From TrEMBL:
SUPFAM superfamilies: YrdC/RibB. This is Threonylcarbamoyl-AMP synthase. The lineage of its organism: unclassified sequences, metagenomes, ecological metagenomes. It catalyses: L-threonine + hydrogencarbonate + ATP = L-threonylcarbamoyladenylate + diphosphate + H2O. GO terms for cellular component: cytoplasm. Its main location: cytoplasm. It is an enzyme of class 2 (transferase).
Length: 317
């Protein structure tokens, strides 16, 4: 495995059935040709991901969605037109192109058009080589924190990728820092399966349809396992810095909350966007410092705060 900045090298590798971690605006994904069963199998192996956890197919443009999903409701078409390319994944009824290996045997498939310019370039160029979509689960070992820089990918997957064949494409820090919002689009109303930067308010504003609140009886989402997005350090959610009774612990909160004495400030985001952007590298840096505990004051509010809280609760579980 080597790290490259050369998109054409990444495109050649992916077109030949090799794995390549690619940057997206949300997190880095471990990409492979979605139509190459051997390559898809190697993605599961490298991540140590259970086979029944489905993958997201990444495509170059909204026009490509019809190859993978059929019978999309009108509200979903409207949403796609407004938001793609962007941090939104649509789960819909699969076409014959979506294999069981990709969907985990479900009759739905997840599709997304990322906006990161490098991801866009990769997807357009592999498409020119006949690759109709790339699976790209977050490029971390199963259950761990998603990577928001190439360094994180090396740390997590470096030893599990093929030394001579697989690649990591350098693309800087991911801007959003949280995985895409996943929306189930098989019914007359949207259901959010995983909250993200595209919020239920955004969906209501764009489609005019309220988002269903219930998360029960929806298909399995691996990020929805109770424990997920976890660093090695124990994550403890608090409301007041006075609750910290340890030194040599990490601390994460908005900048206006002062650092208690004796603890390591892991990040001091000024707003929700920065909180999301810095969250995963803050959690990882605690492990780099061998800290036992990370105390976190979660942000309050709706929208992006809900997505941040979702990840924090799973990290703390
Ligand atoms: O932002 C993202 O979505 C990133 C970047 C790399 O694109 N990818 C990502 O992939 O987060 P992954 O595999 O770590 O998470 C994909 C989620 C999983 O929780 C999976 O269960 C869910 O999507 N998923 C995939 N197909 C599904 C389906 N047919 N029904 C329900 N959930 C599905
Ligand atoms: Mg993941």
């Amino acid at each position: 495995m080597s790290v490259t900045t050369d998109v054409s090298v990444a495109v050649a590798a992916l077109s030949q059935g090799k794995l390549c971690a690619i940057p997206t605006e949300t997190v880095y994904g471990l990409a492979a040709n979605a139509l190459d069963p051997a390559a898809v199998a190697r993605v599961f192996e490298a991540k140590e991901r259970p086979a029944d956890h489905p993958l997201i197919v990444h495509v170059a443009s909204a026009k490509d969605v019809a190859q993978w999903i059929t019978n999309l409701p009108q509200w979903a078409m409207t949403l796609i037109e407004q938001v793609w390319p962007g941090p939104l994944t649509i789960v819909g009824s699969r076409t014959a192109l979506a294999s069981d290996a990709v969907t985990g045997g479900q009759d739905t498939v997840a599709v997304r058009v990322p906006s990161h310019p490098i991801a866009q370039k990769v997807l357009n160029e592999v498409k020119a080589n006949g690759v109709l979509g790339l699976v790209a689960p977050s490029a971390n070992r199963f259950g761990h924190v998603s990577p928001t820089s190439s360094r994180h990918v090396v740390a997590d997957l470096g030893q599990y990728l093929d030394t001579h064949q697989d690649l990591i494409l350098e693309g800087g820090e991911c801007q959003v820092g949280l995985e895409s919002t996943i929306v189930l689009a098989v019914d007359e109303f949207p259901v959010i399966l995983r909250p993200g930067a595209i919020t239920s308010d955004d969906i209501l504003r764009i489609t005019g349809i309220a988002v269903a609140e219930s998360l029960s009886a929806v298909p399995r989402v691996s990020g929805a396992l109770d424990s997920h997005y976890s660093p090695i350090a124990k994550v403890v959610l608090i409301t007041d810095p006075a609750q910290i009774d340890q030194t040599n612990a990490g601390f994460l909160a908005l900048v206006e909350i002062d650092t208690p004495s004796g603890v390591h400030r892991l990040a001091a985001p000024r707003n929700l966007e920065e909180y999301a952007h810095q969250l995963y590298s803050a959690l990882r840096s605690a492990d780099d410092l061998s800290l036992e505990t990370i105390y976190v004051i979660p942000p309050s509010g709706t929208g992006l705060a809900q997505a941040i809280n979702d990840r924090l609760q799973r990290a703390a579980y």
